[in-house]
Amino acid sequence: MAKPDIPKSEAEFKEIVFAVAKTLVTLIEEKDPYLRKHSERVASNSANFCEQYEIVATEDVETVYLAGLLHDIGIVAIPIDLLHRAEPLTEEEMVRIRKHPVSGEKVLSSLFFLEDVLPLVRHHHEAFDGSGYPDRLKGDDIPVGARVLGMFNSLDTLMFPRHAAKALSVEDALVEINAKAGKQFDQGLIQNFMAFVKSNAGTSEDYLQKKQANTMRSIFTEILSQFKSGKINPPVMPQVVREMQTVIKQPKSTPEQLAEVIEKDPTISLRLISVANSPVYRGITEIRNVKSAIPRLGLKETLNIVLAIANKNLYESKNVKFKILMDKLWVHALACAYASKLIAQSLKLEDQEKYFLMGLIHDIGKILLLKAFSEVKRGGTLKMDAIEANVQEAHIGLGSMLLKRWGFDAEFINVINHHEDKEFSPDTVKEILVVHLANILTRQIGLSLFEVDVDFAEVESAKILKLEPVQIVTFVEEVKSIIADVAHLF
Ligand SMILES: [Fe+2]
Ligand SMILES: [Fe+2]
Ligand SMILES: [Fe+2]
Known about the structure:
The chain has 490 residues and is mainly α.
């Protein structure tokens, strides 16, 4: 069996702590779904409150959050009918329920990384005047995190009781809590508490989500500014591609000249030969060398395929989480390339090979971002779907920046800048319309990050290009089979 990775960074270690906490919360939910929601509200409210009013040190806010999530975990030891009973409990039953902070502390005590959480769990039912339980602690002897949890715990049981009919409005709940200031609750915290609760009506945003969104934003800002200032060097265009472009630009370039350049790179040569032999391009005889592959493919298509092969290297990642997404994006890019070419062919546009390349690189900004992201230490705890959403937002700016550095002309940069536009006019250049349609088309095949059914009659670019849905559906089928044939060869 493969050994799990040993956490290498603090971020990774925290990820494990939160995973354990989540498992425990799931356990709570199995026992009592009500308790899970209660715990999450108490956790977020308490942590957001502590952060906003700097009640605890910044690095301790997470402890308050975890303690909030787990404060009632000792309740798993109590029979569920006791928790749901509407009529008053006997003294004996009360004693049993009052044991939950101590049982909770016991349950969690074997997890060394929750050490700081334990006192908050144990003391969340202490009262400021010493009348609480289990230790009858008084005033500042009660850890401040536990005092905060106690307030939000009470607020939550008043506003969201087990029996919804008894629920109080936020105003009434605050009156009740305010009346106990100095007795059950810390007089020194009450004013800020009231202001906080009034500002969000008792339900502040999910602390963990907020934290992740903030981390995400700051990582993105950092990556973008590092690109701009040249601290992160974008990948360079492979040498072989540069040389090929020079050869092709010469008016009388021959397949032999091109072959000479390509053969300098054995990996690219081998792959080019296997693509030339694939069903998409196959002729009668088997191709065995680069020289004979070029006439079959044509000079420009050869360049395209070499570019695609060279491009594939950009889509590599050692990080498994990112690798899955990168692989998806690679197939998406290739599908979009072939779709663009097919559309250009059917419209009999000039310079059809260029459309292939435009399709291939339209999302290059995403790859650049993901690569940078996978190398950021703080990235470990972030959720993949949140990363995807942010990548979607930022990929255009970064993509056009890269293409400029690679020396692509304005036509290409224009496609990058506008391939996600929502509206087009009859004046929109064909290149943008074609790549836009090709991009949407890949969604229909499931070769996109977006899984949706597309109504081609409603696609703006298709309308302007005067392509009928029936025709587009034939492209869909063709791209599907091309990708099945060639995707693994690159
Ligand atoms: Fe409790
Ligand atoms: Fe895009
Ligand atoms: Fe795309």
